[in-house]
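If your schedule permits, I should be very grateful for your opinion on a structural question. Please examine both parts with care and let me know of anything in them that strikes you as inconsistent. The record follows directly beneath this note:
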Amino acid sequence: MQIVPVIDLKCGQVVRGVRGRRDDYRPIESALCHSCDPLVVAAALLEYAAADVLYVADLDALGGGAAQIACVEALLSQHPALELWLDAGFRSLADFAALRRRLGGLGARLVPVFASESLADADAMHEALADPAQCILSLDRHDDRMLDPAGCWHHPERWPDRVIVMLLERVGSYDGPALDALADIRRRAPQSRLIGAGGIRNEDDLVRAAAAGATAWLTASALHDGRIPSRSRRSGPA
């Protein structure tokens, strides 16, 4: 099972996500490092998880504000081999293309996460997901309510190669992974590689999630709190 470390960015700091209540997110407190600076936290997570992929949720942009371009640029510059998956509230493919242009050559290592909560409408969905190998779709749900103005949940034939099953009420919850939801998506789209999010408590949960069809899991709290052992050759606070 691939672990994809997550940082949630809010006003230039890394915050801890809890059950999708974004207004309540507070600066991260971590056993891995003594900072909420994105560069410090990202380095600690990547080292601990032995990862070369990082998922970044830009909460400012998701809330309708400006994207935190400087932070994304700094992360890509600091980690030359990093692939960065970015959810910045893209309403369309054009939104992502404009952001990538601002990053110049660094933008080649940026993978857009098109979130069902953000895509503006069905036309935006079709255009954004037209190249199934070059993007990730996040199917977003909160307390059984689909966040989906474009109708992404209802068109599995449009889903790309990689799909995130994002149940926001599970984020930072330690309630365990939503394996039933994962298995349902797997049945609907056997062609897609599924990436879970939220609820992971320990290594056993990762094993169970893999058996239910996940190839990777977005993880933050279980790494910060040491509930998943380090996959790095080195360990300890940064």
Observations:
- Helices lie at 38-49, 59-62, 69-78, 93-102, 122-128, 179-188, 203-211, 221-224.
- The longest strand covers residues 2-10.
